[in-house]
Structures are given as structure tokens and as C-alpha cells.
Write a structure and sequence with these properties.
With 258 residues, the protein is mostly helical. The protein has one domain. The protein contains twelve helices and no strands. Helix 3 packs across helix 4, helix 4 packs antiparallel against helix 6 and helix 7 runs parallel beside helix 11.
């Protein structure tokens, strides 16, 4: 794995160019261009504010922010694994022409999505201040949670991008999986709403503790429990290693399969 990291570092300029290309083409031809990176989360926030303050009222104070701080990392998660799953096939012509570490392709997709999450977090911070919730000193823990989620998502993207080369239906199945996964993750509801007998199953979902950590830091302004951090760390390490191993084993026959 160390050798693979060194090789990726040697191709860092190519990685940078692929990320730049992804960010540029995402809003190519649009009048507002890169501003959509900030406008999209802002528009979503406006919709949630209207819906949950006038129609679907809850007993959670400022529920729109309770939802929003969990939705931003979820969007990063889904956009990365769905975009990563198709990344190898999308770039098959490039793969056939020249040699480079194939890991760069799903890595560039995740990096671009991660940058979008960073820009979206700017909107989150501003609205937290305007809403009166504010920011606390525990915001210093946010980069750690984001890095751990990044590693977890990157591992999944490595795995799905490689598997999709051999099993093309995977990209369509992932759409269904992520939809079900969304409702099994406490994003639009709180953990306290889950029946106690099912709590253990919900905590087996890696994204459950991810969402809890983001909410603790941004919404509740407190330090996440040690068990929350421990779970996030464990899932991140497991999946980045597993994803790397799966990708490296399957990428040997990419050219033949493509």
C-alpha cells in the first residue's frame, strides 16, 4: 500500500488536473458557473426551512439546521460512490491509451466531491451563525470527522469502481442501495426515534455515527462520544484498506474487460 501511495504522489499533477476538469465540466455552459457550488446547498436550505417550519413541523428546535448539517456529508457520500462506480468505465479510452495508477480515477471523483462539501460547509457555517445556533470551539474536531468520512467513502469508491467493470449492473443497483441506505441513516429523524430493539442494527450502519458526529459538533456544539469516534475510525480504516486491496486485485484485467 505504501508503494501505491508513493506512485500516486508521483502522478499528483495528473490527479490535480482530473479534479480541476471535474469541477469545471460540472457547471460548464451555465451562466452562474462555479457559484452553483454555493447556490445549491443554499437553495436546499431554503426549501427545508419552508417545508419544516410551515408544513412538516417537528419538536426539534431549528429542525432545518438539524437536517442540513447531516445532509451535506450525505450528499458527499452518495455523489462520491455513485460517481466513483462509473469512473473507470467513463475513462476507458484514457485507460487503454496510457499507463498511470488507475486509482487516480476514482480518487479524482472523490476529491472533487470532497471539495464541493468543503464549499458547502461555508454555507453551513454562515447559516449556523445567522440562525443563532452559532459555532463552538468543538468545530476544531470537524476536520477529523471529515477526513475519516473521506477515507471511508474513498474505500467504497475504490471497491465499487473496480467491481462495476466486471458487473455493469452495479451502478444501477447502487441507486437503489443508496436510497434505502438514506432511510436507514438518521438524517430526517433522530436516533431517539429508533425503537430500542433495532438500535444495534442501526449502529452497524457506518453512516449512523458519521451523522451523529456532524450533528454533535455543528448542531449540539459538543464533543462526540468516544464510541462514536471509535466506530468512525474503525469503519474508515477497514474500508480504505479493503477498497484498496479489492481495486488492486481487479484492476489487472481492466483493459481486457473494457
Amino acid at each position: 500500500m505504501i508503494t501505491g501511495i508513493k506512485e500516486l504522489y508521483g502522478y499528483r499533477e495528473m490527479l490535480r488536473n482530473l479534479v480541476r476538469k471535474d469541477l469545471r465540466t460540472r457547471y460548464k455552459g451555465s451562466f452562474l458557473g462555479f457559484l452553483w457550488t454555493f447556490i445549491n446547498p443554499l437553495l436546499q436550505l431554503i426549501v427545508y426551512t419552508i417545508v419544516f417550519s410551515t408544513i412538516m413541523r417537528t419538536n426539534i428546535d431549528k429542525f432545518y439546521m438539524y437536517l442540513f448539517v447531516a445532509l451535506i456529508p450525505w450528499i458527499f457520500f452518495t455523489s462520491s460512490i455513485q460517481g466513483g462506480a462509473t469512473s473507470i468505465i467513463t475513462n476507458k479510452d484514457l485507460i487503454k491509451k496510457i499507463y498511470f495508477p488507475r486509482l487516480i480515477i476514482p480518487l479524482s471523483v472523490v476529491n472533487a466531491a470532497f471539495m464541493n462539501m468543503l464549499f458547502s460547509m461555508v454555507v453551513v457555517f454562515i447559516v449556523l451563525l445567522i440562525s443563532g445556533i452559532g459555532l463552538s470551539k468543538y468545530i476544531l474536531l470537524l476536520p477529523l470527522v471529515m477526513i475519516l468520512e473521506y477515507l471511508f467513502v474513498l474505500g467504497l469508491s475504490f471497491m465499487f469502481s473496480a467491481l462495476n467493470v466486471y458487473f455493469r449492473d452495479l451502478e444501477h443497483i447502487l441507486g437503489i442501495i443508496t436510497m434505502v441506505w438514506f432511510y436507514l441513516t438518521p438524517i430526517v429523524y433522530g436516533v431517539d426515534m429508533i425503537p430500542e430493539k433495532y438500535l444495534g442494527l442501526f449502529y452497524l450502519n457506518p453512516m449512523t455515527n458519521m451523522v451523529i458526529a456532524y450533528r454533535d459538533i455543528l448542531y449540539y456544539k459538543k464533543v462526540p462520544d468516544f464510541s462514536t469516534f471509535g466506530s468512525i475510525f474503525a469503519w474508515s480504516v477497514i474500508f480504505i484498506v479493503l477498497g484498496y486491496v479489492v481495486f488492486q486485485n481487479l484492476q489487472k484485467n481492466f483493459v481486457e474487460e473494457l
